[in-house]
Amino acid sequence: MSSPLNAESSSFATVDDIPPSLYIGHHATDRSGPVTTRLLAQAQNTGYDLLTSPITTPHFHSRVLQLVEDHLQNAASTQTPVENLPTPLITPLSPADSHLTPSDANSAIIGVVSPWIDLSSRDPLIAHVSKHILGMEVAYAAFCGISNLIIHGPVSSEGTMHYARAVLEALGMGPYVQIHILLPMTGELEVDVEGTPLAELASDEYSADAADEDGEDVEDEGEPELYGSWEVWEAIRGLCSYHGRLSIALELPRQLPPIHLQSRWYSEPVRLLVFPRTSFLRNPKGWPVLSKAHQSYLSRFLRLRFPPWALLSDCNPIPTQETSSVTAQTPEPTPAEASSASSSTTAAAAEKPTAHLEYLRHLQQTQPYRPPIERFGQGYQDFLQSPLQPLTDNLESITYEVFEKDPVKYEWYERAIALALEDLEPQVTGKGQDGKAVVTVAVVGAGRGPLVSRALEASRKTGVQVKVWAVEKNPNAYVLLQRRNMEDPVWGGKVSVVKSDMRSWKGPKVGSPSTGGGEGETTGKVDILVSELLGSFADNELSPECLDGVQHVLHPTHGVSIPQSYSAHLTPLASPRIHADLLSRASNDLNMSVQEKWELPYVVMLHQYDFLSTGPPSSTTTTTHENAAEDPDLHPNIHQTWSFSHPVPASILEQAHQRGGGQIDAGGFQGGNGSNEHNARCTPSGGLSFPIPHRGTVHGLAGYFETVLYASPSAASKPPTNSTSKTNPADWKQTRQVELSTNPLTMSHKSPDMISWFPIFFPFKTPLYIPDNGRLEVQMWRGTDDRGVWYEWCGEVFEDGNGRGEMVGERGAAGGGGGGKSGVRDCILVGGICV
């Protein structure tokens, strides 16, 4: 038998990690001449992939300024209010107004909308002219084949909604144009606008001073609000309905903001990372470098499926053989550069035109290896998938194969079986020909047989004899199981293969090594019942219902179920990318209605998201969340929703059978006879409370699970399902317990590097905005009747103050219910059962 896969095996490392793709662009704020094919070729030969180009020229800027000034002078000379005059009309662009022309080379050009316009101006005249210019430039850039445009963010946050409305109209002018809003992480942009901005021509009555005199709220000139820039973006993308062609050009400051704000921006659709010259430090040799914090932040972005582009802004001119009118002059050194330029070597490094570019390429080539889960899930980042439906669908061989590549799951199952064999050997009554005890093991839902092999391997290692049964309903997998029993030397014809739904299987036939028992034949009991029915949310693949149906074959006194117990866990997420994906799917998927899209949970490899509810870790938790190492307050708050244990007490199953058979005259709470009502669950009456320290938007709930595969009765302590006690998985023989977890708080010390399960995501149709120091109360139900099982979920936002929290906004529910509705039924049909 081949050795189990591990993180270093060929399954993950057949080839070395390929360096991530990184497109680097050159941006000069004072570039005013045309970006010719010659300049573009020089830039690409140097190592740049992209160049920015203004859409219009200084001539157009002067023409617009003159037009507005003439209009204002006319109003002043005639003593006519500006609003009573016809608005000035900007004539179409002329060749002198733009250097752009249609060209195949334009695919490597990022257009820059005139930064001197003010779409957020309180002055109607300035806002109108700015909006007109935006439309002209976007339309002409789209005509020329430029597909990426940068628009500077709002000059003032007061007019953000007017700005957003103008951007929304611009998105409709070019169906293939991607618009990137240039924003700082916090505070203001590093680079000032070249030339005279239109804002300077605004009427005095609309100035900040006038607004202050009128008693309106005006931002203080002191320290900028930490989340102010993000709030602006939140308003823009909200009004634009999470448009798929709207993203962010994020400018990185010299000193990054706190980790929690970095994580928030990381979750957003950042398409450009802008590095002004001030972002860089100088090492002792004078070369430009990024701080460790910047390097770590860039590495996170480079691990995305579609990494953002990097844009070097005013760092160095493009090297040319002769001075070009379109090439920026060498910029003035920053104070740090000037103070470090004390030697010839340092001066040479500071003046080398490709120093910043070469450094970013160096970072690209020296990125750390990705963890196993990322290598395994490459291409599936934030990709929404419907949960598997193994009860109704016969899985394909490739699906089984993917699961079997897990380096942890089956090894942990083998450990659990080994512990159970050692504990049960003295208790079983079955004997082999040599008089030694024989433990009967049944693998229900055997698939292609990996757990069967693990059971046989556990028997070999422990020396405990076993009699193994493999039960599988999939007729295609059944063929492979039979062939494997004949040809696999580990199996050696010792496995009894049964074609049956586990719930219909009568049990192992006594005295036969190869058949599953028929009518009138004697059947025995199973000592160990092994299954792998767990889903991303523990019970979402109907493990409780399936194991209830097969429990009758388990020995009533010493029978062991592997897994023994499992629990589901939740936490709120900001995941705008997933929300935007669902919005885009709402109109193009013919298999579901628009409403149904929001009433389904999705399995997804979460990557570009932000844990909104965070806090200091407890003394017994660790986390796989990468920011926690840098900021101890970034451990996510993840709460248990409910749990299940197996085997179920016989009295509970007996009552369920009586209700199902009509022997008890009591209907179910959800209708029908209530035979599955013992598997209904809900959160505690007070709900799950998630404190949200920093303002944000909840797009849904992330779900995880934990399971105790086996905990020996002889263990010193038997932890509950939701235990977070730190144990080393390698010490399983001493602790005599084996656990699996996808919970980020416990995965690293229960089942590190496990890849079989991605998290599950429960979406909100209407995202919920939460203020600083807010609180999200989550309620969830696992409903059931005679025909189905389904989930319901909802959230309520509270603003915590002194004393009792006050509810703010509306309740968000599955399907986007508002106005206090408690939620709607959410189902995935699985073999006649909703999940």
Automatic annotation (TrEMBL):
One GO CC term on file: cytosol
GO molecular function: protein-arginine N-methyltransferase activity
Record's keyword terms, sorted: Methyltransferase, S-adenosyl-L-methionine, Transferase
Site positions per UniProt: Critical for specifying symmetric addition of methyl groups: 403
Active site: 532, 541
PRMT5 TIM barrel domain boundaries: 47-365
Biased composition (Low complexity): 335-348
Domain PRMT5 arginine-N-methyltransferase: 374-562
Binding site for S-adenosyl-L-methionine: 400, 409-410, 472, 501-502
GO-annotated biological processes: methylation; regulation of DNA-templated transcription
Annotated region described as Disordered, given as residue ranges: 321-348, 657-678, 713-736
Biased composition regions of type Gly residues, renumbered to the chain: 659-674
InterPro entries, alphabetized: Arg_MeTrfase, Arg_MeTrfase_PRMT5, PRMT5, PRMT5_C, PRMT5_TIM, SAM-dependent_MTases_sf
Stated family: Belongs to the class I-like SAM-binding methyltransferase superfamily.
The protein's name in its UniProt record: Protein arginine N-methyltransferase
Species the sequence originates in: Hortaea werneckii EXF-2000
